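Weekly structure sync, notes
Attendees: PL (lead), two postdocs, one rotation student
Agenda item 3: pending single-chain targets
PL asked that the sequence for the first pending target be pasted directly into the notes so everyone works from the same version. It is reproduced below exactly as submitted, 522 residues in total.
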Amino acid sequence: MWEIVRAGGPLMWPIIFCSIGAAAIVLERLWTLQDRRVLPPELTQRVWQMVETNQVNEKVISALEQNSPLGKLLAAGLANRHRPREILMERLRAGDAAAGEALVKRYYHPLMLPQGFTQLNLAPHWLRDEQGRTFCDAVCPQGVLCDDGLAPKTITTPEYQALANYAYHLDAGKFAPFLHKHCTEKLGVKYVSADVLSVNQDEQGDITSLTTREAGDIPGDLFVDCTGFSSILLGKALGVPFHDCSDVLFCDTALAVQVPYESDDTPMASHTISTAQKAGWTWDIGLPSRRGIGYVYSSRHSSEEEAQEELARYVGPRIKDLKVRKIPIRGGYRETFWKNNCVAVGLAAGFLEPLESSAIVLVELSAKLISEQMPACREVMDIVAKRFNEVSHYRWGRIIDFLKLHYVLTKRTDTQFWIDNVDPGTIPERLQNLLHLWKYQPPWFFDEFDRLEEVFPAASYQYVLYGMGFRSEIDPADNVGTELLASRYLNENLSVTKKLRAQLPKNRELLRKIHDYGLQAI
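Predicted structure, written out during the meeting:
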């Protein structure tokens, strides 16, 4: 043997070393991939027994992760067993929970600005060196908190304050009576419950009064149309046309269902989960006693039967015992929001698919603007109306741009719905221009989003753009002089994320404590 090595000369030594390395790898694989190590006997049966007896907890899941490859797979499934089927399948396909965190097909649009957002745009720095983190995780703690199922505050955090910014899900059936009681008892509002029979106008078109069945004529100087989709005052009486947006946003129907939890201690997501489907998307909202789930889809790209099947695949077998409600969506808005002495708010003004829950914020912003700009007399009302209309048109246009952004960035070509969504003819001109601009410079605080109350600031565009894989071309020179500041902010985010993960409770745990003890008053 030695003679063969000497005869082969120096070239034999690399061959010998490679052979030894290959033999070591083979032996290691033979040891590691033994059936008893990869598929421990009776592991699946033991895990199933723990599931049936409700013994699964974080300690059990952690132990499974260290057990074996099969254990990691089972741990990934158990850790995400109460999440939507699509996310569960993603985690399982990833092989373990850690690998699932970095899946490209999922991203967050958090309610927190990137670290140091008003001082420095971190997007160019992240684009130059992602360091294995998503844009959201690099600049903001909220995505990680949502992944962990953590609440945005602790039981000792005062009411309406937060450690991580949050929004509310309101039970409209309870919230409306609450507002009624507050307004009538605390604000001196006179409430009249009556059906409108006719709208009475003067020669100039102003509304003088409403004739009602129960209360007769109700006169007024300014009328706020809150009559929903029918828009009895602005739409029908004043004849303001409706601007249809179905050429841009295709979804026009929703199927909604309430899915009870399997048990009272089922983990509850602390964020709304939206999942792309064949002809639209599903929402999945965790509430204390149930999940609110719905499929928003385009009837031009899917039949109702196909949509029902798509929703059933998402919810699972339990849907056969649940009632599914069909909700029509007429996407668009009134061409004028304030005409003469009538202003429309809420559904009377318009509605867009609830992808970013923009309807409620528009109600709030409209009411705020009306109260701040309340005309002193009829002589100046048209001036105020013009200002209100300009602001409202801007807001509705920007919301449509932002909703369309979620569709135009897709790389899906599996259905006609997604193919049609990237057709340039369906993309607003302003959004097309911005996308072209953002190929070379990332959006930021001062770029195109300079209104005092932007519904979706530049940060929102950053989260969606880079969450969906959009890339801006960055010249290294663009980051010169700001590297140290960027590094400081990125490290601060890591520190804040670590601190919040250690400090915040699970979402259900917090809500249970709030129910039992209440929150500290401000």
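Discussion points:
- Residues 1-29 form one domain.
- The radius of gyration is 29 Å.
Action: rotation student to compare against the earlier draft before next sync.
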